[in-house]
Task: structure prediction
Amino acid sequence: MFNETWGVDVSVSTPHLITGLVQEAVSVGSFVRLLSFEGGRAKLAEVTLADDSPALDREIVELGFPRDTTVVAILRDEKVVVPRGDTILRVGDEVLVLVTTESEDAVGKILVG
Result:
């Protein structure tokens, strides 16, 4: 019923979203896909940084994310941090990233190892 005629261009699968949230809750140090856009060509993913993440104590700008990747938000101590290039990542940060299919593996290596 809701389609582009109604201004809806992204369908959200409630079971997929709930599954992603459950995985996220139990998966520190794992790359968890939360939502897909544009037929799966873009994804919103989340990583909770473990104590062995290669991204720890480094500024976002230093990490060398692919150009088609955006760090959307960081959840830290129950607060939302709007990321900037000089934002330093810490253990336990929940990093939300928008990635493409092509950049997903590279971003996983940067944040998870």
User: Anything to note?
Assistant: The first helix runs from residue 14 to 26. The two ends are 42 Å apart (CA to CA).
